[in-house]
Automatic annotation (TrEMBL):
Domain of life from the UniProt record: Bacteria
Protein name in UniProt: Helix-turn-helix domain-containing protein
InterPro entries assigned: DNA-bd_dom_put_sf, HTH_17
Domain Helix-turn-helix: 14-65
């Protein structure tokens, strides 16, 4: 019998802080700072210590920061 199962190559929707920082090309410390003071991407708290970011939320946050000039608010 031939195994026709395909390996799961789809990207995982939830990322660790390190993966999310790499996805956004920012330091992990910057992402941690956003969590503490606000203004960063939405995240999920799973249990007491586990933090995860959804890829769609990272993209939405990055898109919300688009500007054409330094004078845009």
């Amino acid at each position: 019998m031939i195994d026709t199962a395909q390996p799961d190559t789809a990207p995982r929707p939830y990322l660790t802080p390190a993966e999310a920082a790499a996805h956004l090309s920012i330091p992990v410390r910057t992402l941690e700072s956003y969590r503490k003071r606000g203004g960063g991407p939405v995240y999920r708290k799973l249990g007491l210590k586990t933090v995860r970011y959804h890829r769609d939320d990272l993209t939405a946050w990055a898109e919300a920061g688009k500007r054409r000039s330094v004078h845009e608010c």
